[in-house]
Amino acid sequence: MIQLTALITPFRSVHSIPLFFIKFFPFSVSSSTSEESPEPSINHQLFSLLSHPNWQKHPSLKTLIPSLSPSSFSSFLSQYPNLNPQIALSFFNYLSCVPSFKLNVQSYASLLRILISNNLFRVAQKTRLNMLKSCETRDDAVFAMRLLLDMNKYDEFKLNVWAYNTLLMCLSRFVMIEEIKCVFDEMLSDLIKPDIYTFNTMINAYCKLGNIVEAESYLSKILQAGLSPDTHTYTSFILGHCRRKDVDSAYKVFEEMPKKGCRRNVVSYNNLIHGLCEAGRMDEAMRLFVEMGDEDACCPNVRTYTILIDALCRLDRRAEALRLFDEMKEKGCKPNVHTYTVLVDGLCKDFKLDEARVLVNVMSENGLVPNVVTYNALIDGYCKKGLVDVALDVFDTMEPNNCIPNVRTYNELISGFCRINKAHKAMSLLDKMLERKLSPTDVTFNLLVHGQCKEGEIGSAFRLLRLMEENGLAPDEWTYGTLVDGLCERGRVEEAHTIFRSLKEKGIKVNVAIYTALIDGFCKAERVDFALTLFKEMIEEGCSPNACTYNVLINGLCKQGKQLEAAQLLERMPESGVKPTIESYSILIEQLLKESAFNHAYKVFYLMDSIGHKPDVCIYTSFLVAYYNEEKLKDAEDVMAKMAEEGVRPDLMAYTVMIDGYGRAGLLHRAFDVLKCMFHAGHEPSHYTYSILIKHLSQGGLDIKTKASSINIADVWKVVKYETLLELFDKMGEYGCPPNTNTFNSLATGLCREGRLEEASRLLDHMQNCGISPSEDMYTSMVNCCCKLKLFEDAARYLETMLTQGFLPCLESYKLLVCGLYDDGNNEKAKATFFRLLDCGYNNDEVAWKLLIDGLLKRGFVDRCSELLDIMEKNRLRLSTQTYSLLLEGLDRTDNK
């Protein structure tokens, strides 16, 4: 066996090692102890392994490699600087062939230290170039640049023109213009004569920034040096002009190339095609694509196709994009990850999620690894469709496929949860981001603020504002716009107006969205005159109203019975440069129909149609409502026929209106026919739809003797008998649309709101007997109902069931239970419940806000709040500074009462 000492080169004094090694690679030349080594066990094992002459075949190699990271490998080389260079190089080359191991810039730098200290300059020069090619980030490039410029002080390892060019290209890849200028100046001071590649790299770097003036100064240097511009030179200028959005100038350069004896290549075409696509000149881009082969015998490559496919998808011409994708494959041009990602994103925007998922699988089958952008597109598609659980499944596959989620991944999931009113789940993702050392952005916080406002949690939204500031982010107009809108939705218009007035002092420009939200708020508060004053102020301040602003005002005027003023405002819209939308007409038509002014409504209808606005489902639904209210069933059916003729498909509300209309006419069989159509069209009936059906089933005298039409829809769940629900199930089965999870959830929600826990429990049992699993929302309704009825043991049991089934209960349920248990004197059970929720992964700040501040402190449970705060602290659950301050203020304020 070779002795370990044979692996070490003869000892050299520290003074013989160049200074740059000490600067960039601090190490001791003496033997390192276990305490000094960052990873002594791995390093020692690796050193022992490399002592074997046939280490490549040693059985411990395969077990050691998975535990070795680029940083630990760099640590090993730094710990053993006198390692035999040939063994170090052999092992380095071996690692470069291991698919699961990726050498980074620090790994190359550590090897360089060993090679140069052993005077292996030829191999070191090759390693130097490979190090530059390995740079993946700006930080990598800066590290490499500083190291190489420092090494350049030594004659044995000075940078030549090739090395300078490679370094410049590395920096250009990240558009690091200041660093590029620094290196170019260093090259000149080093008396290295730039060649055409040098100048082209400089030109390309400036052109990437659209800085044509600086790029042209280097073109002059090419001519001064007696060199000739080549294809790369002109192609960079095409790119530069396109970056400046001056596609016509780019076209001129493109057309000049053959005249200058310079052949256009695929990159020249790609740059111009991309510029045309970005300028919206799609037809010209497609024409250029077709001419490639004829003009320059130039074949489109994967980037050419991807540019066009991407542009077609962004223009909603996705069918053409798919045809081009098929053509691409037929011509033997293999799509890359970017191509697939563009198509996945396009399919997701069309909500063709199954097709998008299949495409991701096809990628993997073709040996392509989906990247974070691919996964984000798929996750975003599922979230926008409301299928957040499926999006989470996709999320869970990312890391096993060596893809690390980024901030955008989390933002899309947060947006998805907020969209389905699960802000507590969105908040829990905030903690997961921080655990991964990902910094939440203003977009993250704006989404969370929106989610809290949407659920009526205005207090939590304001706390997020302070949390946002604590994270070094400044709330912007979108943050405050969400708060203004949230307050207005809750009727708190004066508070919204106060925030609105404070924005100028904060240096935040009030945008059209904030004005519109506030105007809408005052309209809904029946203060239309003040809304009109705001509208006038808005115009005077130079903030142009959009169609949405006009629509909320038109709606406000109509609600106040001022149809004439609403119609006049509608007429003035084009004069102000704002084109009325379908909604603008729809609001007026709906109000006229409510007053049975059918003739006037039809006049507006035909006016709208004459200026090119085709009636949508909302307008047709307004007519349906009006005719059903007038008991004009035949007219309503004519409207339905007209919808079918115009290709307008009924939506959830239209179907519900039809069901109600037939129910009122005593035609329940027709109502259930519509329900069947509704299911087949892919629309899930809402709680309101089921309330309508229950109301009309009640008309048969099963529950009450009054007419169903006289029952207030809100009272349906107070009077319905359980037998009627069973009758509904039978009818649904009879018409081929058997009850599903949504059905049971809707019915349980209605019963629980009225405190009818016994019937809701029977419904839950019936559901499980049918083999249908209760949903998260159904359990939530049961828990909240139990708490209101002070049946805390039952509530705790339902909560535990939720957790065992993988559901995360909303914090409102926990607040009701914990506060209820304390109120009932069951302190130990309350504490145990709180302990349980701390393990569930909620955001700690939100737990403190909703349970401690909004729950216990508001109810006067000061000691209990303090007790639970101690539990959080003992469990090392970190709270933000502002949350902790709020708690201390609350405890102190309550104590002093």
UniProtKB/TrEMBL annotation:
Pfam families per record: PPR, PPR_1, PPR_2
Ranges in coiled-coil conformation: none
Per-repeat ranges for PPR: 160-194, 195-229, 230-264, 265-299, 301-335, 336-370, 371-405, 406-440, 441-475, 476-510, 511-545, 546-580, 581-615, 616-650, 651-685, 740-774, 775-809, 845-879
Annotated organism of origin: Nicotiana sylvestris
Family: Belongs to the PPR family. P subfamily.
Matching SUPFAM superfamilies: TPR-like
Keywords noted in UniProt: Repeat
Official protein name in the record: Pentatricopeptide repeat-containing protein At5g65560-like
Keyword GTP-binding among UniProt keywords: no
Cited InterPro entries: PPR_P_subfamily, PPR_rpt, TPR-like_helical_dom_sf
